[in-house]
Design goal:
With 199 residues, the chain is of the alpha/beta class. 25% of the residues lie in helices and 21% in strands. The protein has helices at 4-16, 20-37, 61-70, 144-151, and strands at residues 45-48, 75-81, 88-93, 99-101, 107-109, 123-126, 130-131, 137-138, 156-160, 181-183, 188-190. The strands form three sheets. The protein has a seven-stranded mixed β-sheet. This is 5-formyltetrahydrofolate cyclo-ligase.
């Protein structure tokens, strides 16, 4: 077993070794797995992160653009880290949304955030550095998604990973919110989907 800190170092180093073309190849395979595995057309809101290219994150734009092109009834929401450094606000993202990179290179939408209580994500695509065969994940260590997911227990929690799982993360704690599933380029890992979610 490895700790989160160990896995964070290992996976960040491994990602740096990936060529951009390999990131795109794996991201395209991951997107195909996602659309094949989940009833995306039945959802009203899909929440997703926007990728940081220099971090070699999965390219979620491949999913977003396909939703825009093929599923006009499905709205996309994206998060923005607030100035307090611990909370997120969420914005509706469509083809007309203006984006400006923040200090971390993450594109952020302009305009007004979605008021709490006016929307509910059917599924949340979650960034991660590693995940294990029990559905636990290693993020960047800030806890943004654990707090957000705890507020939306009905949402399907789907990790996106360019790499397969590790056997087990050693230092899981009670505040960690586990995944319902994780999509990789090769397959979809499932960890107990809620009654109304998944396929």
């Amino acid at each position: 077993m490895s700790t989160k800190a160990e896995l964070r170092r290992q996976m960040l180093a491994a990602r740096k070794q990936l060529l951009p073309a390999e990131v795109q190849r794996r991201s395209a395979a991951l997107a195909a797995q996602f659309f094949a595995a989940f009833p995306v057309a039945e959802w009203s809101w899909l929440h997703t992160f926007l990728p940081i290219p220099q971090q070699h994150e999965p390219d979620t734009w491949l999913i977003i653009r396909r939703v825009w092109q093929q599923l006009p009834g499905l709205r996309v929401a994206v998060p923005v880290v607030q100035a307090d450094g611990v909370s997120l606000q969420h914005y509706h993202l469509d083809e007309a949304t203006e984006l400006t990179p923040n200090r971390w290179g993450i594109p952020e939408p302009a305009g007004q955030a979605l008021p709490p209580g006016t929307w509910q994500p059917d599924a949340v695509l979650i960034p991660l550095l590693a995940f294990d065969e029990q559905g636990q994940r290693v993020g960047y260590g800030k806890g943004f998604y654990d707090r957000f997911l705890a507020q939306h227990p009905q949402a399907l929690r789907i990790g996106l990973s360019l790499e397969p799982p590790v056997p087990r993360i050693a230092d899981v704690w009670p505040g960690d919110v586990p995944l319902h599933a994780c999509v990789t380029p090769g397959r979809v890992w499932r960890f107990g989907l809620p009654a109304a979610g998944g396929q």
